[in-house]
């Protein structure tokens, strides 16, 4: 049976990554793709608690409408990107808790410690979340890549044991096709397998590492195996076929001087007269 994949369109980059999403929609992908919302719609702006956010129709109210429709919660997997991961996913988490389907989050927007308010830091302990993050993404803010991934890891609650991050040093905010195409379907299947089995999908992680290394990229894959502060880390590069492994404990707090305001997309302002944001993906 084909798995139902719900894509939260605002921030997902469906236009820029059109060829990648076309592959997801093919019958042989194993997915039935359903799309919620659209980029550049009147609600495609940040809520008022965010810098340059707006009252009225915004991504929070859009997320609440997704909750009311109930369809996303009946999916097998969810896919978010950028501002969708920052705003819409936390709305679903708060509404449905551990019943939210496994999610793949491009840019890791849900895992940013410096959020406008604590409301946006809610993260259910029983959810499966697989983040795709990049060292050249402006969401990194002023952090080094090491600080960027440690900050994201520290956002997952200690009670959670089902979170993973694929961190690609060369990835920009809008993932290059050479990165997204070989790993996206594998990440979606890994998240669903993790949810169904309750065990970290080691074989799928291995396939992802092989695929991303083949493209000439470097970075690391980190994941939890159980609740607590211990993560397994595998570093990879195209030039080294033998990945290095270690345990990581990210909870040591960042020095105050290194903390930066939460990054937002470059055009989060309230829309012009047409009601749509001026620069969206």
Descriptive overview:
This protein has helices at 18-24, 59-69, 83-96, 145-155, 177-197, 202-214, and strands spanning 3-8, 31-36, 77-81, 103-106, 129-136, 163-172, 219-224, 231-237, 240-248. The model is unreliable at 254-261 and 267-281 (pLDDT under 50). The longest helix is centred in the middle third of the chain and has 21 residues, at 177-197. The chain has 281 residues and is of the alpha/beta class.
Task: Break the fold down into its secondary structure elements and pairings.
Blueprint: E1 3-8, H1 18-24, E2 31-36, H2 59-69, E3 77-81, H3 83-96, E4 103-106, E5 129-136, H4 145-155, E6 163-172, H5 177-197, H6 202-214, E7 219-224, E8 231-237, E9 240-248
Parallel strand pairs: 1-2, 1-3, 3-4, 4-5, 5-6
Antiparallel strand pairs: 6-7, 7-8, 8-9
Helix pairs in contact: 1-5, 2-3, 5-6
Quick rundown:
By secondary structure, the chain is α/β, with parallel strands linked by helices. It contains 6 helices and 9 strands; from the N terminus they run βαβαβαββαβααβββ. Strands 2-1-3-4-5-6-7-8-9 form a 9-stranded mixed beta sheet, with helices on both faces.
Provide key terms for this protein.
single chain; nine-stranded mixed sheet; 281 residues; alpha/beta
Which radius of gyration do the C-alpha atoms yield? 17 Å
Largest sheet: 9 strands, mixed
Low-confidence stretches: 254-261, 267-281
The string of secondary-structure elements, in order, is EHEHEHEEHEHHEEE
Q: Beta-strand percentage?
A: 15-25%
Mean pLDDT over all positions: 88
Q: How large is the count of helical segments?
A: 6
> How many strand segments?
9
Helix-strand category: alpha/beta
Strand order, biggest sheet?
2-1-3-4-5-6-7-8-9
The outline comes out as: globular
Task: Compute the separation of the termini in Å.
Answer: 31 Å
Helix content: 25-40%
